[in-house]
Structures are given as structure tokens and as C-alpha cells.
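User: Could you write out the 3D structure of this protein bound to magnesium ion? I've included everything you need below.
Assistant: Certainly. Input first, then the structure.
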Amino acid sequence: MEAHNGLSARIVEEAGFSGIWASGLALSAQFGVRDNNEASWTQVVDMLEFMVDATNIPILLDGDTGYGNFNNLRRLVRKLEQRGVAGVCIEDKIFPKNNSFLQSEKQPLAEMEEFCGKIRAGKDSRQDPDFCLVARTEALIAGWGQEEALRRAEAYRQAGADAILIHSRSNRPDEVLAFAEAWDNRHPLVIVPTKYYSTPTEVFRKAGFSLVIWANHTLRASIKAMQQTAKEIHTTQTLVRVEDRIAPLKEVFRLQGADELEAAEARYTPQGKQSSSVVVLAATRGRGLESLTETRPKGMLPVAGKPLLSHLVDALKAEEMHRIHVVVGYRPESVELNGVTLVENERYEATGELASLACATEHFDQETLVVYGDLLFRSYVLRDLLAVPGEIVVVVDSGPVEESRDVVSCSEKDDRSVFGEAVTLRKIAQSRHELETVEGRFVGLLLFRGKGREIVSETLEAILSQESGATAGLPHLLNALVENGHRVLVHYIHGHWMDVNTLQDLNRAEDFERGWSHAVR
Ligand code: SPV
Ligand code: MG
């Protein structure tokens, strides 16, 4: 099957083919030039390198005439071997050649003996005994007839060609079938049924052909798709009509092997140096603080001389987390923070935390921290959390639970003597009566990285696809993760944090930030 660059080569391999035809026509066309050796042979070889890198199946290059005489072919064979190309097909025409279907009868053929010398030179210069040299005769294309085709094919066989390609421009298979009959299985035969495409492949199998080349079909398929898409976008001046008909970006990334790079990054880059992102959930006005939040959400209320959210942002930046995305909703114009990206949840009034989080999924990174916008904590809380290895980690305060909000049940209780033992989340609830055991309270810090990003994104999407998902909060996501069998690691802390929900909290926050309290809730 034809391919003409790394992407099409990978697509051909994924379709199940066991070999690739690096078509001269298609390679020229994708460069936007004619099939007349307008692209240099080194440009062709460079493209082949991408195709070899993208695949694990053999690639047979359509080497035209070998780009010159026997000497040019020798060098070509060496370069192809060096780049992992499995073989080359050369045709008995004169450089620069023309495509077989253009002005066919005017095409001069190479002198037979000279072409045999080229075949011998090509064979002699290979180092890998598996490197294939296919000799293609254009005798039928140029109108020299069956007898000349057979004469040349035999000469090329004797010169050492590994297979003979007999090319025909007839709409019927008769020519190549007659050739095969006379050839009588002397040596492997190859055909390119571009013109006589309606013949069942079984006919070719029965006639003894070793290889059929479908020579230009990924190129032609892509031309049509590109033309239709470009025209439609130009005409409609919008992307909405085409979006669902074209490959999603996700598919592009998959074909490029983006996953492999991500996995390699996890293996080869130090954890702390992962590219990190933060999503701060700060869309709501803040219930319980109505009197102060007429013109601004609670995150903008001043605490110790600056907005509550600024304390959080500064704490994040102190841990080198500079890509901070704050999801705003209520009074977004009042949220003025330096060095953060604001993401708006326009439906904040009708939706919950998860809907806000979903507004920021495009900002999820190799390592992503999700944090409530009304949180204050001592710097070690974040530093220690970032040092916990694991794909999904939550912070739980193991201190005495006074309130019944965000209470959690974990696999083990906080036992400082077994420092480092992995504890996992069992369930999070809004009432301790829903839990068999209560080990603490969720602090509003969720970290995910590596595969955890995919898992969280998928779970989030699944929840939001249900009606009940619209108003769901972070606990809903955590429970869904656990229910789906994913490990949510628990990182225990003991105090040194607080969230702000009431006027009293606001005063405590002042003390907390001034260092006067340790705020064990
Ligand atoms: C090619 O694919 O470039 C070929 C086959 O050489 S053909 O176009 O039929 O000549
Ligand atoms: Mg060609």
C-alpha cells in the first residue's frame, strides 16, 4: 500500500498492511511537484527516514530510474540501507523520467544492457542480503509489446533482480495476465493495477503474482478530503460543519505517538521538573459571606492586606507552580490577580465545582493541582504533597473532625510511625454517618499526574455527561474514581490549613496569615 510521509506510512501499517510502497508519484505530489524527478533524491531519502521511523514494516522505494546511472544507484542503495529502507524498485527509463500514465508512448526506454549493468551494480553495493532490488520494465507502457517486455524481464532476472515489476496502462488485466502466463513462475512478479483496478485480486493470486501494489490511494483519498474541507471552511467561514467529519486532534496526537513521549518524560525527567499546572476553583460568591460579597467573590476579600486568593497564588508560586488558572464565575471583573490566567465558568450559578473544573481541562498538564479558592495553608503542605509519588493524590487532615463536611474514610488511619506507607481513599461524604470509619477531612487539594490526568479527565467527562453531574462537586469526582477502581492516594496532614466560609473564618484567616494561629479546624 502506498504511503508518502511518516503519517500516511503509520496509517498504512495500522490498517494491517505488511509492506509500504513509497510511491514516486505520491512523494512528488505531497511535495507539490511533478513526478519528473523534480524532488531531488536526497529529499526523497529524507522523507523515507520519517517513514521508517514511523513504522515497523518493510518499505519498498519507487526509485524511478535510480536517479542517474549505475553509480548513482550504488550510492542510493547504500543510503537506503543506512536509513532502514527494505528495497528499491528501478524502472528501465531515462533520467529524468515521467510518470507512466503521462505521454506513455513518447517515453524512451533505457538501453537493456545498460539497465542490466545498473541492476548488477545495485545488487553488488548492498550490504544486507535481505535488501531487495525490484526491476521494472516499462516495455508495455511505452508500447514496445509483450515480446520485448519478456525479453527485458528475463535479462533483468539474469542480472540479479529479486523480482520483476511488469507495468501496464491498460484498463484490462489481459496484458499482465498474458505476461504472467508466458513468464511461468520463473521469478517473483509484481504488478500495479491502478488502471485495471476492477479485476478481483484473487485473479492475480491465481495467475501467480507475488505482490500487488496499490500505488496512490492514500494520496488520492487525502487530496479529496483536503479539498472538500478547505472549500467548505472557505465557503461557510466556520469550522462547525467540518469539525465532526475530520479526525479529532486527539487522533493526530495518537498517530504522532504523544503517549510514548509522556511516558518517557515520566521515566526520564525528575518528578519536580514535570510541567505543572494549577486549577483554582473560585467561581462562587461564597455562601455565608453575602454581606461582604456584593461586588466581589469571597476570594477577593482582603486578608492581612491582600485578597484571600493572592495568598494562595503566592503560596503556589513559592513552590514553583507558575501556571495558575483561576476559574471565576461571580463578578469576574472584580478578580484582579497578577500572573494568573482567568478561566470563566459562565454558568457558575447553575453548576458546581466539577463544571468549573471542566472549564479548565485544556490546562491540565503532566502534573495538575486542583485547589479550592478559599484555602490557606502553610507552605510545607504543598511542598510535601508535591513530593508524594502517585498518579492521584488528595490531602486529608487527620485531626479531630468537628464539622461533617468532606469527611473521608481511608484504608488506614494516620499513623506517623509507619511513615511512607501508602494509604488510599475509600469514600468521601458530607455526613460522618455515611461512613463506616472516619479518618479525617478532605482539605481541598487534589493532585494528579501521568496517567492520572487521563483518568481524571475521563471520569470528569463521564460525570458531566449525566444530568446530575452539572451540580456535582470535587467529592463526587473522588468517589467516582474510587468506585471505578482507581487508586486515590491519601497524604495526611495535621492542621496548618484553613478554609474561609464565614465571617469568623475571615478573622481567623487574618490571624493565620499573620502567623498567630495554626488553624487546626
Ligand atoms: C508510482 O506510484 O509512482 C508508480 C506507479 O511508479 S505509477 O504511477 O503507476 O507509474
Ligand atoms: Mg513512480
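The mean pLDDT is 94.
User: Perfect, thank you.
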